Sequence to fold (328 residues):
Amino acid sequence: MAAATTAIAVLPTYETIGLAAPIILVVLRLLQGIAAGGEFTGSVVFLVELAPERRRALIPGLVLACGILAAALASGIAALLTHLLSPEAFLDWGWRLLYAPAPLLGIAGVVLRRRLVAGSGDATERRLPIVVVVCEYWPSLLRVMCLASVNAVGNYTVDIYGATYLQVVVGLPEATALNITTASIVALSASILVFAWVADRVGRRPVMIFGALGLVVCSLPLYSLAASGDAFYALVAQITLAIFLGAVDGGLAVLMCELFPRKVRYTGVSVGYGLTFGVLGGTAPLVATSLIDVTGNDLSPAFYMMLAALVGLVTLFRTPETKDRPLE
Fold:
């Protein structure tokens, strides 16, 4: 992750190396995604297995919250740079400053990893874990994929595509859109921790059902509010959507792990979550843009989010509560 991010910071421009520049950039972005995808699920499984039973949702929730908070930091710095630099300077060299901390963060990651103890695994299982998951635990795999779809579509539509939507579709200034997106990401991070704490007390399903139901019922009116053109209304809409997403995310990390036994937990969570994010999360901005182009309806991304939330809601009603279930 650190190597790919650092390489982006010093990547030559199109004027310097031609078509190789965008090709290399895409390759580096793919490497970032592969690294982040494998590391996220591994860290979640690692923490769930080591967490005290009464903190099993909160501790892995920190992984989601801190990762999202890092996105808020990046969005905030980007907004700051748009104020400090001219548009030409930002596009020319200013954006590279966002990637500058990568080497130091990579060194910190290596130092921390040297102190880790052994994580999930089962030396007695002779079959490939993916074979065991597909053949014996496919219902849990499908549940993880359906629940992760809410997270993937929701987070990428609101927090990744959100700034573009507010600029291109709603017509807000770039700095205003970035500020609103930054505020919504901070709200999402905080709400994840709050709802993870609640999930440790009342269960995973109640908080996730609240979030998914809120997205089904409120996505359309909240998108209507954001599309009004008023920056304050857009801020309220984005933050409210972030709170509902935080409720889903607050119980998601631990629930995914509790649906699989130890011998296939890492594989089950990684395949279900990673595949869903790759297919639905990575394409969510493209789908949202295409829906607007095809339908001519500026509110069409709301229907995509409602569909994903409805899938998650139905899945939650068919998923047993795992709060008091001991980890196998």
Q: What stands out?
A: Residues 20-50 form the longest helix (31 residues).
